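Support request from a user on the community tier.

User writes: "When I paste my structure tokens into the form, the page sometimes reloads and wipes my input. The last time it worked, I copied everything first. Here is what I submitted, just in case something in the input itself triggers the reload:"
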């Protein structure tokens, strides 16, 4: 995956790009795990078997790490100047890129619940930035799949039925005890 994601730190990706990356990731995991299409194993199950994350998670992790690195650079370094720069003269070409890197960074920060106004202070400390990024990424990626949510709802309904039945049985036994005494 490192070859596939080389340079992803500065990519501005749309949903269609993530879908294509995820499809390739799923095919690679199928080959590694020895699975075939007819096994009908969901992507989430394959990722959990391989102990890996989705491509969106991996790309966001790389991009957050890069943003923190650039913010910690000296202010005269070119990557930092470009990160904070705006187009001084002219405008973007018509029909060109609709989403800028700064827009993409704001979307990532929003997904990870990192306040953009505190970006500088959080990223200035490497260890704190790493912790904030890990916490934000765990919050942004859903840990439960549809099947797990469905199973949880079934288990909850079964548990509520069991408790209701046990309440009924206890009240019935109380009535039996009152009748025979």
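"...and here is what came back when it finally went through:"
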């Amino acid at each position: 995956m490192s070859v596939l994601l080389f340079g992803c730190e500065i990519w501005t990706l749309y949903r269609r790009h993530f879908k294509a990356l995820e499809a390739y990731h799923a095919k690679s995991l199928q080959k590694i795990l020895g699975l075939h299409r007819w096994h009908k194993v969901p992507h989430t199950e394959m990722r959990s078997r391989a102990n890996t994350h989705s491509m969106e998670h991996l790309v966001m992790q790389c991009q957050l790490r890069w943003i923190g690195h650039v913010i910690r650079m000296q202010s005269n370094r070119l990557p930092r100047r470009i990160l904070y720069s705006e187009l001084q003269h002219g405008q973007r070409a018509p029909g060109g890129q609709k989403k800028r890197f700064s827009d993409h960074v704001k979307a990532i920060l929003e997904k990870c619940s990192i306040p953009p106004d505190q970006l500088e202070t959080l990223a200035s400390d490497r260890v704190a930035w790493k912790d904030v990024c890990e916490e934000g990424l765990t919050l942004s990626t859903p840990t439960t799949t549809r099947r797990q949510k469905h199973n949880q709802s079934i288990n909850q309904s079964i548990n509520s039925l069991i408790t209701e039945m046990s309440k009924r049985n206890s009240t019935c036994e109380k009535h039996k005890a009152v009748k025979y005494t």
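Agent notes: The reload is a front-end session timeout and is unrelated to the input. The mean pLDDT is 80. The two ends are 75 Å apart (CA to CA). Escalated to web team.
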